[in-house]
Amino acid sequence: MSQLFVDSIEPKTSGEVVSINRGKGQVLEVLTSLCDGSTVEVTSGSYTFQNVTALQEGTTSYVDLNGSTLSYKPPTGTKKVIYEFAYMIARTSDTGPLGHHKFFIDGVEVTNARWNVGANGLYGTLQTFKWIINCNAASSVAADGAFTSWNALKQLKIQVREYGSSNEIRWHTTYYWDGSGSTQFHRPLITITAIG
User: Region 70-77: what's the mean pLDDT?
Assistant: First the structure.
């Protein structure tokens, strides 16, 4: 078997995009940023993240969770997309806080991804929601967020509400800090990983 050894491989400066076969199950790209309004360029394109600058008060109606919305199209050859959203959640008083969460892809809820966060000790707890989207499925399954292909931008987002008016909750903040009751803003972040 012949072998080729080189010091480095550089991308072409013009012409077609360089393609390297990384084998099955390999990471094709990672798109990640704080939700600070920044723009990040990766193989599949240029993406601007939402700019979250303050805590978000809960209501008893579902609303978009600030920072969680991003429209994304994976690079060619992607089989799975991992969506991760890291955020802080906290109570607003001494009553039992409880927040409901839903995950959506292009306006369709992934019902098998529903989750709650709540506890009397919820004083500013860091959460990470993670979901694996199959974009090479044999058939589409909306409840799992599975698709037979993914060739155009799809909007990914989370919606939230509090259980009731006596179960108030806030996102992107603490409840206590440095020995006293103090709301401290915590900026969320998104990471999207495309796997071949």
Answer: 97
